[in-house]
Amino acid sequence: MIRALVFDFDGTIIDTETAWYVAFREAYRRHDVDLTLETYSQCIGTSLGLFNPYEHLITHHGLPIDRVEFRESVRSRHSELMKHEAVRPGVEAFLEEARARGMQLAVASSSSREWVDTYLERLGLADYFQCIRTADDVKNVKPNPELYLRALDALGVESHEAIAFEDSPNGVRAALAAGMHCVLAPNETTRLLDFPQVGHRVDSLEELDFGRLIASPSGVI
User: Fold this and answer.
1) Residues 166-199, buried b or exposed e (16+ Cβ, 10 A)?
2) Is 8 labeled as catalytic in the residue annotation?
3) Could you read off the pLDDT of 157-168 as tens digits, one per residue?
4) What are the distances in angstroms from CA 43 to CA 15, 98, 207, 221?
5) Hey, how many other C-beta atoms are within 10 angstroms of the C-beta on 216?
6) I want to staple 167 with a disulfide (CB 3.0 to 4.6 A). Which of 12, 35, 51, 171 is the partner?
7) How many CB atoms are closer than 10 A to CB 60?
8) Which of 8, 136, 137, 153 is catalytic?
9) What mean pLDDT value characterizes the chain?
10) Are 155 and 133 in contact (CB under 8 A)?
11) Is 0.70 surpassed by the pTM of this model?
């Protein structure tokens, strides 16, 4: 029996990922450098440990860039792009259905708590979740399963009793490593990446019937 749904945040609840990639790609082009998705994807859904897009032009290309000015310009462009983004299709309907059925809801995000809280409040979604676990709560973010395991522990459910909703390869790997069922709903940017196999892959949650998913979380409906 499925008792809980655990949502990734960035790219899954709202597509912040595409805006980040566009903002960084534009910034790199101003320095005549092509930021490929293959390179950028190393930091999607995880920390900046493997690839730090704020530092790469300096550390890899040796360009004399003002770090503060570069960071502020990218963040400003991201904020501008995010003005046009809303909750991804089907997400709020799933939250409503889960709450109506008395199911537990959580967020497990590799971003900071401040970042997640700011957007959840802005989107009017904060009250849906009994638990929010972020990078502030763990030593290792995704693809390590720690975020999901912390969320499951807080909700008091076993891994097989929960479904994770993800948009990135790192997130899917974390959910599967935690022993959870996983629904993959990649966004405009992450849909081009390679993913581990999951039971359900859709363009948006609007394509899924809630009841049928809960009845068959691991298999093709």
Assistant:
1) bbbbbbbbbbbbbebbbbbbbbebbeebebeebb
2) yes
3) 999 999 999 999
4) 15, 31, 28, 32
5) 14
6) 12
7) 12
8) 8
9) 96
10) no
11) yes
